[in-house]
Amino acid sequence: MGRQWGPAMRVAEQAGCVVSTSRAGQPEAGSWSCSGVILSRSQGLVLCHGGIFTPFLRAGSGALTAAGAAFLPGDSCCEDLRLHVQWSPTAASPAGRPERGRPGLCTPQCAGLEPGPPARHRGRPLQTPHPAELLLLLSCPAFRAHFARLFGSETAEQWRFASAAPDAEVSEDEEEDQLRALGWFALLRVRPGPEEEADERGPAVAVAPLGALPKGAPLLACGSPFGAFCPDIFLNTLSRGVLSNAAGPLLLTDARCLPGTEGGGVFAARPAGVLVALVAAPLCWKAREWVGLTLLCAAAPLLRAARTALRRLRPCAASLAALLPPEVGAPWGLPLRDPGPPWAAAAVLVECGTVWGSGVVLAPRLVVTCRHVAPREAARVLVRPTTPKSAKIWGHVVFATQETSPYDIAVVSLEEDLEGVPIPVPTEHFHKGEAVSVVGFGVFGQACGPSVTSGILSAVVQVDDTPVMLQTTCAVHGGSSGGPIFSTCSGDLLGIVASNTRDNNTGATYPHLNFSIPITVLQPALQQYSLTGDLGGLRELDHVSEPVRVVWRLQRPLTEALWSKL
């Protein structure tokens, strides 16, 4: 994963753990488990997801959505709750130290896996699970408010945050419990064993202030897929991505997480290992399609809520609240507001009647988008830049390719200059395998500005040694059409997103397989129009060769072929 990630990986793996709940004396009732973050090994403080505690709530899961409910004391759960935390030894521990009394592995019910016999040690040293005490359940009110705004009302039926696929058999009660607990977390305290040494516990984590990281900032998610199932295999699995979008403490990342990683930590690459957020929902579905994004809750406001709750619930626990890790600031090299990569601001929202999509600014009065976003020449178009969010400029379509053209392109001329928007530099060369980023208004539209997703340039398709199609592994969604692809390293503009892929046989959409038009196809014609107003070069896009049409045949809704969803 490179030098950039080495320090962050070490911090993430030392802070990662798995938390299990069960009923005392009732092994037949099963167990529930999730991932967690060890906030301070020296104090035994752990933060994990609250969903695994819903079966134990005396008042049922409805207590989580009661008016004004921001936290619940530990005794809100039944007395038969048994709680254990398991982690890997720290770097200071003797590697491979024999484990005494290692129990059989518990299987989380939510993972849908069948219990098996105790697993043999497979080479990864693990600590024996430690008993723990539930201090409190807490949520972040701002997270819940933004969640209701973005995913409530008329859009609620389109979104699903259960830990199983839409077609999986999950009861309505189970799904309701998961949704109620989505923004809830639990603060625990581990009871140390008599032989445990303080130097094995490691340092406390550092926490990033809310809003300190920009969209596109690299992130590292650390969690245990399937919770307590086979921790010697799955404990502290890593996934790399970027901060895709943010609405207050509600964050999205394209780091790929699985059921069981709820409560896992998400860390920054710079400064190394600073805790940014916890996983709230590892799988997001929209209109029964996986969007390839993970929902997060920022750690800083969550810990502020924990301090407030501890002081109110336990007046004698003020010293415990003081032990929670503080937020880092400029002395640690983390600015309070990072403006992020300048190229991200070149993406704009394009509205043409009731249709909207993304676009990219190529000159102060010139925007390029897709034909299916702005399909008619002379049509009035409204363009909204990223900054300031309130700005909007009218324009009209001066050119749109014909329906028969494989290149899905429209050019918009604006009535005013877009001030303060950086003009991207078009690339001249493509490097297969290079890191790339897509910026577009998929998923949330204009509610939170554009989203950024990361990946690599997976293919450069050529005809007669000329690039005619790009493929990337970035997650691309409806609304991203017309958005730009940039080289993450240089910031150069590589192309314009045209589509992702849907399998007509299964109906599945693949956000990580998408197609874009190389900017080298468009640049000569766009430059000619900018200098002379001549549309001749652009109209040549309607008369491309048959080999180019064959390459782009995936855009046609043929009966037995893949086609564009966007």
How would you explain this protein's 3D organization?
With 566 residues, the protein is an alpha+beta fold. 14% of the residues lie in helices and 32% in strands. It is built from 9 helices and 28 strands. The strands form 5 sheets. The protein has a 6-stranded antiparallel barrel with strand order 1-2-3-8-6-5. A 6-stranded antiparallel β-barrel has the order 9-10-11-16-13-12. The longest helix has 15 residues, at 299-313. The radius of gyration is 25 Å and the shape is elongated. 50% of the residues are buried. Mean pLDDT is 83; it is low at 91-122, 330-336 and 556-565.
List the helices and strands and how they pair.
Layout: H1 6-15, E1 16-23, E2 31-40, E3 45-49, E4 71-73, E5 81-86, E6 130-139, H2 141-151, E7 159-160, H3 172-180, E8 184-190, E9 218-223, H4 231-234, E10 237-247, E11 250-253, E12 265-268, E13 275-281, E14 285-286, E15 289-290, E16 294-298, H5 299-313, H6 318-322, E17 347-352, E18 355-363, E19 366-369, E20 380-385, E21 393-400, E22 410-414, E23 435-440, E24 451-463, E25 466-472, E26 484-487, E27 493-502, E28 509-518, H7 519-532, H8 536-539, H9 546-551
Antiparallel strand pairs: 1-2, 1-5, 2-3, 3-8, 4-6, 5-6, 6-8, 7-14, 9-10, 9-12, 10-11, 11-16, 12-13, 13-16, 14-15, 17-18, 17-20, 18-19, 19-22, 20-21, 21-22, 23-24, 23-26, 24-25, 25-28, 26-27, 27-28
Short description:
By secondary structure, the protein is of the alpha+beta class. It is built from nine helices and 28 strands. It has a six-stranded antiparallel β-barrel with strand order 1-2-3-8-6-5. A six-stranded antiparallel beta barrel has the order 9-10-11-16-13-12.
